[in-house]
Amino acid sequence: MATIRDVVEALSRRSGVEAVVVVGRDGLPIDSRAANGLDPEGVAALLPSVINAMTQLGDAAARGEFGTGVLEFGRGLAVVTVLNADALLIVLVQPATNVGGLLFDLRRHRSAIAGLL
Question: pTM of the full predicted structure?
Answer without folding.
Answer: 0.93
